[in-house]
Write a structure and sequence with these properties.
Elements (H helix, E strand, L loop, with lengths): L4 E5 L12 H4 L3 E2 L2 E2 L9 H14 L3 E4 L8 H8 L7 E6 L6 H14 L4 E5 L5 H6 L6 H19 L4 E4 L4 E5 L11 E4 L3 H10 L2 E5 L3 H17 L5 E10 L3 H11 L5 H14 L2 H12 L6 E3 L2 E2 L12 E4 L1 H14 L3 E5 L3 H11 L1 H15 L1
Parallel strand pairs: 1-4, 1-15, 4-5, 5-6, 6-9, 9-10, 10-11, 11-14, 11-15
Antiparallel strand pairs: 2-3, 7-8, 12-13, 13-14
Helix pairs in contact: 2-13, 4-6, 6-7, 7-8, 12-14
Protein name: Alkanesulfonate monooxygenase
Keywords: Flavoprotein, FMN, Monooxygenase, Oxidoreductase
InterPro entries: Luciferase-like_dom, Luciferase-like_sf, SsuD_RutA_monooxygenase
Length: 375
């Protein structure tokens, strides 16, 4: 039977109905780029409400992102695990910010107290300015080489080993975890460049992709699946989308355009400059899709919209339509081979509730009916 797991994200850098209004967010940057208005602060009360809504809505996992203006993911997880019952938490970490041994020790404490409800998302890159703020000046290639070592060390620590490690970036003597991890967590990882795919298929457990059109996403997925098979590795795959719903398709696109209705030209310029300077393959590809679809109200395929990519540098392509249309599009991506789907939107709380009420049940219903017809 086809199974799909739903993930969402906590807005730990702030939340809003709109993106790109520089007056509102005072030019603040987010984990995924520039331009998310923060008229809802990421207070402990609000983020707790988001986590509890995600659990109630049928999401299995809540991603806690990393970035200059985000609440620390591990700190957030330590609080949220105590205020939820079954929800898992995917903490985003950067190798250039925390040593693998220190991260593993912090992780093991939170995971122990949460009864194994915390996973790890290793994020290699980010905005150059943010990386430099952390003293990370490595080249793109070297960052991925370091990430390979970082994940190798985390996995050995999580598996309870005591070991020496002599790498290009890390040298350890007698490394171990004082507090053992009962079940080694899956390592989530993403990246579109050739070296990123090599690292993913060598050491990651879940490969994360930003959604695009069905055709381009399939090309990206197939390239990684092929590489993993050549290495006799079987990965899990996750695809990510924004979501904008409406009672009709027309109403949904009106809602989508409302989100970017207050975009400041300076924010658009900053996003373009950020993309040029970032150098990330995935970011550049989404930006190009946005530019090419500008004359078509940013529609790149049926119910797939790139309007948010004007402002957001990360997961920015949106599924826009009625709940039935969005559910059908999700099933099409599940059919490509994705067993995990990350969905989010603006404002996060209301979108999470809406997806849980109107979309997730439809996806399960479509898949179940199809299975019945095959019996």
């Amino acid at each position: 039977m086809t199974k799909v797991e739903f993930i969402t994200m906590a807005p730990t850098s702030g939340d809003s109905e709109y993106v790109g209004n520089q007056t509102s967010n005072k030019g603040a940057q987010t984990w995924s780029g520039v331009g998310v208005d923060s008229d809802r602060e990421p207070s402990v009360e609000y983020i707790t409400k988001v986590a509890q809504a995600a659990e109630k809505a049928g999401f299995s996992t809540l991603l806690l992102p990393i970035g200059g203006s985000c609440v620390d993911s591990l700190v957030a997880a330590s609080h949220l695990t105590a205020n939820t019952k079954n929800l898992n938490f995917l903490i985003a970490v950067r190798p250039g910010s925390t040593a693998p041994t220190q991260l593993a020790k912090q992780y093991s404490s939170v995971n122990y107290w949460s009864n194994n409800r915390v996973f790890v998302n290793v994020v290699t890159g980010g905005a150059p300015k943010e990386l430099e703020n952390d003293g990370d000046f490595l080249s793109h290639s070297d960052r991925y080489k370091r990430t390979r070592e970082y994940i190798e060390i985390l996995k050995r620590l999580f598996n309870g080993e005591t070991f020496d490690y002599n790498g290009e970036f890390y040298t350890l003597k007698g490394a171990n975890l004082p507090l053992p991890v009962k079940n080694a967590p899956p390592i989530f990882f993403g990246g579109s460049s050739p070296i990123a795919k090599e690292v993913a298929t060598d050491v990651a457990d879940v490969y994360m992709l930003w959604g695009e059109t069905l055709e381009t996403t399939k090309q990206e997925l197939d390239s990684v699946v092929k590489l993993a098979k050549e290495k006799n590795r079987a990965l899990s795959y996750s695809v990510s989308f924004q979501v904008v719903l409406g009672e009709t398709e027309e109403a949904a696109f009106e809602n989508a355009n409302k989100i970017i209705s207050q975009v400041d030209p300076e924010v658009l310029e900053a996003k373009h400059a950020n993309t040029v300077n970032n150098g990330a393959v995935g970011v550049s590809r989404l930006h190009q899709l946005m530019l090419e679809s500008k004359g078509n109200n940013f529609v790149i395929a049926p119910n797939i919209w790139a309007g948010l990519t004007q402002v957001l540098s990360g997961n920015s392509i949106a599924l826009v339509g009625t709940p039935q249309q969005v559910a059908e599009r999700i099933v099409e991506f599940v059919d490509l081979g994705f067993d995990k789907v990350l969905l989010r939107g603006f404002p996060h709380l209301e979108v999470i509730e809406e997806i849980g009420e109107k979309v997730i049940p439809l996806v399960h219903e479509i898949l179940a009916k199809r299975e019945e017809q095959l019996v």
